[in-house]
Amino acid sequence: MFIAINGSEFGKDRAGVYYLAPHSFEWESMGTHYSDFLRWAFSGNLSLFCQKVRWDNWRNEISSLSGQSVYSFLIHHSAE
Prior knowledge:
Layout: E1 3-5, E2 16-20, E3 27-33, H1 34-43, H2 46-50, H3 58-62
């Protein structure tokens, strides 16, 4: 997940937090600023936020991945 703090690149909400949405590859506002983002990141519901990009059995499949490597994923969306 890519997170960015708006330095005026994304609009008028300077210091707003944005993320690169995996479903659209567009920067979307998270509707918060940095301190609130940190509070959410460490105590919020990250599972709910990520549920659209997780698949059945994802925990088992990623359990063997190394934390010492970099991974890149391409998300394919079918027309439904």
